[in-house]
Specification:
This protein is α+β, with helices and mostly antiparallel strands and 314 residues long. Helix content is 38%, strand content 26%. The longest helix is centred in the N-terminal third of the chain and has 20 residues, at 3-22.
Length: 314
């Protein structure tokens, strides 16, 4: 075995022991998946670690046991800190750095890119999001940063999921923000503050026109950056066996703690929303789980659309 192969295996062994020590009971397949190794490779390394160490006497060797049910470490000799990040940890850090790259003005972008490049150079794991897909948003972020720095408006060709259309927009940029793993541009269009998702911006250019002074004065609210506090509120009745929806949408359930274990057949709930079209599609998509109570005019339109769809299927 060549010297570099021996060194690589030593590092792998010294990373494997702290990992299994902190994750007692994991199976060989789970360990292999987490550490990007083959199952046979994990088994061979565990066999090599067993009763090895700095000495040959009692209390000087690693002691562990592994079966198909899991791995148990009895004595790790204090080796409980990994020498390097495992692939999932490295990619999580990389995603965080790439998110910071899209936030102009908040961080030293050159330092962030330098750190991200170092991680990319040593990470090549299958099954993890391709960083090139994430990096594709970099020109968008750079153009937005340029517009904010120069106080210029932006011209966007933007896809709206609400209307399922591509539209041309001229906006005054305010800030870049993130929520639920998505990056948004907050901007003033006419008299209205709106948010635009980076991945739905098809084209973007800096205009020669100066930004609206109201955009310069506007400050992003970290607690409510999407300005939903001033938005519309929908009232629903949600089925008692569909309360899990509150974990995926910001539904506020009117449910007492006493009734949480055995909820009634229907539970009152509210949801803030931005557009009537989106709310109508949301209600139709979950028609078997909830009923729209208010706004009443929109509830009537949803019922009408549902009836038309049912008639078309007959």
């Amino acid at each position: 075995m060549m010297a570099n192969e021996q060194s690589g295996r030593l590092v792998r062994l010294l990373n494997l022991l702290p990992y299994v020590s902190r994750h007692q009971g994991k199976t060989l397949m789970e360990i292999a998946r987490d550490l990007n190794m083959d199952v046979a490779e994990v088994r061979d390394d565990l066999d090599r670690l067993h009763l090895s160490g700095v000495g040959r006497g009692p209390g000087e060797m690693f002691d562990l046991a592994h079966t198909w049910r899991g791995v148990t470490v009895l004595d790790d000799q204090g080796l409980n800190a990994p020498l390097r990040l495992k692939p999932t940890e490295a990619h999580a850090l990389l995603l965080l750095l790439e998110s910071l790259e899209t936030l102009p003005g908040l961080v030293n972008v050159d330092a962030v890119r330098s750190a991200a490049d170092k991680i990319r150079a040593v990470t090549n794991t299958a099954g993890v999001t391709n960083v090139d897909q994430i990096a594709a948003n970099t020109p968008v972020a750079a153009t937005i940063a340029e517009a904010i720095a120069e106080g210029r408006k932006l011209q966007l060709r933007y896809y709206s999921a609400t209307s399922d259309q591509l539209t041309q927009r001229t906006v005054s940029p305010i800030a870049v923000l993130q929520r639920d793993e998505q990056t948004y541009l907050r901007a003033l269009e006419g008299d209205t503050q709106k948010t635009f998702r980076f991945d739905r911006i098809r084209e973007i250019n800096v205009s020669e026109e100066a930004v609206d002074e109201r955009a310069v004065r506007a400050a992003a609210d970290a607690d409510e950056p999407f300005a939903f506090d001033d938005g519309n509120v929908a009232h629903f009745k949600v089925r008692g066996d569909a309360l899990w929806m509150a974990e995926y949408w910001e539904l506020e359930l009117e449910l007492t703690p006493a009734a949480a274990d055995q909820p009634p057949e229907w539970v009152d709930a509210t949801l803030r929303y931005g557009s009537d079209d989106w709310l109508a599609r949301f209600c139709l998509a979950h028609a078997d789980r909830l009923r729209l109570v208010a706004p009443e005019d929109l509830a009537a339109k949803v019922r009408e659309r549902a009836c038309r769809a049912a008639d078309a299927l007959r």
